[in-house]
């Protein structure tokens, strides 16, 4: 049974403001889903809701999904911090809470400790959605560490795996990529969907994510890297990694990733050589992909039946010949194919030299094993500290 006041733009500041909603929740025999998204709640209201969640058996023992997105419009940072300090510990008391959406909340750095603790200890969590939270590289690094600790926590309790991690529109950039990669790696084959769209991650960061993280997520079905930057170098590493997911990958979103000609050639050559029987969505818009790549790679892969499940194809915004036989063929295969914003090829323009890379496009080896050992030691130190407190 669900409770929802989603999208009502209510201002719920005090306990009195929250009470009618608490009363409605308490009347449910089993409350499995609460949705407060699209409203704004204050500190006292948050404390009242937290008490309801933690102390009402019909809620605490049954809650499976909590949508707390867009919850703090017009609230000060102090209010957001105190609200989270009340709500997140209450959610940790829910043994079946598998889905939490905290998107569209401007958390800021001051909330990262509370958020990191919650993620680290939310053993039942299977789907975590954190988009548009104003998190930069440092916050992203902390989230990565929290994901690592969550995986260790799940192992100790034999809890179900984390299946979905969404962290888009957060400007995570390269600085978060290494620890984020280790956090993703820790969840191994159980991780099904990773969405890191619109984060300003450049080639070196993408390579960190692939080399130190995603290649260990062998059960990955959905990968969304939209509006980050790959160019030739990160595209080459993606091409090396893609075959690991050949039997499971269902959706690949590389829109606005600046693959360029060389990068697109590398990625699409994978589909020429290897069949991906479950891939139903392939998004490649606005990547400076040229006509020859479509004709010699993409179309060849499709006609070879290496992409038999492909239903959604996006190639708009590339450097393609609108009145070409290849695009006519593709339009005949895909009814929804949009080709209304193509860049016209310019025969007079000098071809760009993709080999002219900056330092950010080279891969740097790091001692990832050492970093993982440090994270494991931090887990042991925390456990020792918790035990010491419990004995006092």
From TrEMBL:
Q: Which SUPFAM superfamilies match?
A: RNI-like
Keyword Cytoplasm on entry = no
Q: Which InterPro entries match?
A: Leu-rich_rpt, LRR_dom_sf, RanGap
Q: Name one GO cellular component term.
A: nucleus
What terms describe the molecular function in GO for this protein? Answer: GTPase activator activity; small GTPase binding
**PANTHER family referenced in this protein's UniProt entry, alphabetically:** RAN GTPASE-ACTIVATING PROTEIN 1 (PTHR24113)
What protein name is recorded for this chain? GTPase-activating protein
What is the native source organism of this protein? Maudiozyma humilis (Sour dough yeast)
């Amino acid at each position: 049974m669900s409770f929802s006041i989603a999208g009502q733009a209510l201002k719920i500041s005090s306990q009195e403001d929250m009470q009618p909603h608490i009363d409605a929740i308490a009347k449910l025999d089993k409350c499995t889903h609460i949705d407060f998204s699209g409203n704004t709640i204050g500190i006292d209201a948050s404390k009242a809701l937290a008490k309801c969640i933690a102390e009402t058996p019909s809620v605490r023992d049954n809650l499976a999904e909590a949508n707390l997105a867009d919850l703090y419009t017009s609230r000060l940072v102090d209010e957001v911090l105190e609200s989270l300090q009340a709500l997140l510990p209450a959610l940790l008391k829910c043994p079946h809470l598998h889905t939490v959406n905290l998107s569209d909340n401007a958390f800021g750095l001051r909330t990262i400790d509370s958020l990191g603790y919650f993620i680290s200890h939310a053993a039942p969590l299977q789907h975590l959605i954190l988009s548009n939270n104003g998190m930069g590289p440092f916050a992203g690094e902390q989230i990565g560490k929290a994901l690592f600790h969550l995986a260790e926590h799940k192992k100790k309790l034999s809890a179900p795996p984390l299946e979905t991690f969404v962290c888009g529109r957060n400007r995570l950039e390269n600085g978060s990529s290494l620890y984020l990669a280790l956090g993703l790696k820790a969840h191994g084959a159980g991780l099904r969907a990773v969405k890191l769209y619109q984060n300003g991650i450049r080639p070196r960061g993408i390579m960190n994510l692939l080399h130190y993280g995603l290649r260990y997520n062998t059960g990955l079905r959905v990968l969304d890297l939209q509006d980050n930057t790959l160019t030739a170098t990160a595209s080459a590493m993606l091409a090396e990694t893609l075959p690991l997911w050949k039997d499971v990958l269902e959706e690949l979103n590389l829109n606005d990733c600046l693959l360029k000609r060389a990068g697109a050639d590398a990625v699409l050559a994978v589909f020429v050589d290897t069949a991906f029987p479950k891939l139903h969505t392939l998004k490649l818009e606005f990547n400076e992909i040229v006509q020859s790549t479509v004709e010699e790679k993409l179309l060849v892969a499709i006609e070879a039946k290496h992409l038999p499940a492909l239903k959604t194809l996006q190639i708009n915004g590339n450097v393609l010949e609108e009145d070409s036989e290849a695009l006519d063929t593709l339009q005949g295969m895909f009814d929804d194919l949009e080709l209304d914003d193509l860049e016209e090829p310019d025969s007079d323009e000098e071809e760009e030299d993709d080999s002219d890379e900056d330092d950010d496009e080279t891969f740097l080896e790091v001692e990832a094993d050492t970093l993982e050992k440090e994270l494991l030691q931090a887990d042991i130190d925390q456990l020792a500290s918790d035990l010491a407190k419990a004995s006092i």
